[in-house]
Every structure is written in C-alpha cells, then in structure tokens.
Amino acid sequence: MMNRIRIYHATLATLAVLAYLTGELGIIHARLGYGVAVVIAFRLLWALSGERQVRLMRFYRSMV
Questions:
Q1: Please, what is the Cα angle at 56 between 52 and 57, to 5 degrees?
Q2: Which of 8, 34, 50, 64 is 20 to 30 A from 19, comparing alpha carbons?
C-alpha cells in the first residue's frame, strides 16, 4: 500500500518540477500540466473509492 502512495507522490512531484522547469517551452509545459491534473484527479478518485487506508474518511470522520 505505502509503495503505491510513494509512487503517486514521486510522480506528482516529478511532473510538477518538470512543468516548472519547462515554463517557456509551450506545448511540453502544457502536457506536463495536464499530467499533473490527471494524477491529482486519479488520487481524488482513489480517495473516494479506494482501500480504507487511503480514503478521505480516514481524515474526516465527521463525514461518515
């Protein structure tokens, strides 16, 4: 479980840094930005429907 979370964080960090570094390169920067958005959307879906350890309810008990 923790390895998948680490992979998520590493992917998000890598895409964000690369997007920052390619700020002047137009299409590459845009594609990396879309990649960041996809990774974040995936994490939100994972938090809503994933395993108990990665769900949002773990942090927001009042929502149960």
A1: 70
A2: 50
Q: Where are the alpha helices (DSSP H) in the chain?
A: 2-21, 27-49
Q: Which two tokens stand for residue 25?
A: 């390169």
Which amino acid appears at position 40 of this protein?
I
> pLDDT tens string for the chain (64 positions)?
668 888 989 999 999 999 999 988 889 999 999 999 999 999 888 877 767 666 666 555 655 4
Domains identified in the chain, total number:
1
Closest by CA to 36, choosing from 9, 10, 12, 3, is 12
